[in-house]
Design brief:
By secondary structure, the protein is an alpha+beta fold. It has 10 helices and 5 strands, in the order H-E-H-H-H-H-E-E-H-E-E-H-H-H-H.
């Protein structure tokens, strides 16, 4: 079971290599966020050697191309490039057709509830689980707007049990922000935000929300034009604004 952790999650590749070396092969793979990216590719049958090679070849130029920002209506980056990358790797499968049971965790944008993605498109499940707010646009999947699974369940041990696992190996590479903050500020006098400062911040956010709301319609028209009106997402409701995504 692979958890979230951003770039730190790449260390999970090493864990999978060791497990294979020890002849420990999973029957169930349950992942969240970047763990879903690696675990999903692995579940699709891509060899751990190939995953490692692709990772080692990744450059700043490649990353910049994958994460090139667009019109920030709902998120800075669309996930189309990520989808195409996953297709090239061989992940264009349905979860039901995988050789192991697989589930990715995402967060329902509207309700904040945990969503278990264990059927249909593997690529859709992966991109929904990695849709980090603000950076990526929410993913409309199974009639819901979905965001990064780490928001609600960064290490979904409970889901592995729910799917029938009895012996679980969980990989947690996420750090605790609270501990990190404490270490950095333990010897410093850090001023607390006053009510006055919070009020000013809140007012500034609302001002920016009003400005972005006025830009929503032009942005939608431009995005539709750039897509050549060939989008298969005609029935998707309007994406939530980037400020709502951030909040």
């Amino acid at each position: 079971m692979l958890g979230s952790g951003g770039a730190r999650a790449l260390t999970q590749i090493g864990v999978l290599k060791v497990l294979e070396h020890e002849k420990i092969l999973p029957n169930i793979i349950v992942d969240s966020s970047m763990g879903a990216f690696i675990g999903g590719i692995y579940a699709a049958g891509v060899s751990i050697e190939k995953i490692e090679q692709v990772t080692l070849r990744t450059s700043m130029k490649f990353t910049a191309r994958m994460l090139a920002p667009g019109l920030p209506k709902s998120g800075m980056v669309a996930l189309n490039r990520v989808r195409n990358f996953l297709k090239e790797l061989g992940a264009n499968l349905n979860i039901e057709n995988l050789n192991v049971s697989f589930a990715a965790i995402a967060t329902n944008f509207t309700t904040g509830e945990e969503i278990i993605l264990s059927s249909s498109s593997l690529i859709d499940a992966i991109v929904a689980s990695i849709a980090l707010p603000v950076l990526f646009k929410p993913v409309y999947y199974q009639n819901k707007f979905l965001l990064d699974g780490s928001i609600i369940n960064p290490l979904p041990v409970n889901i592995a049990y729910k799917l029938g696992a009895t012996n679980i190996i969980a990989v947690n590479v996420a750090h605790s922000p609270g501990i990190s903050f404490h270490k950095k500020t333990a010897s410093k006098n850090v001023p607390l935000l006053s009510e006055k400062n919070l009020s000013r911040l809140r007012n500034n956010i609302f001002e920016q929300m009003e400005k972005i709301d006025r830009l929503k319609l032009p942005a939608s028209a431009i995005e539709s034009y750039l897509a050549g009106n060939n989008s298969t997402e005609e029935n998707i409701p309007e994406l939530p604004g980037i400020i709502n995504n951030m909040l």
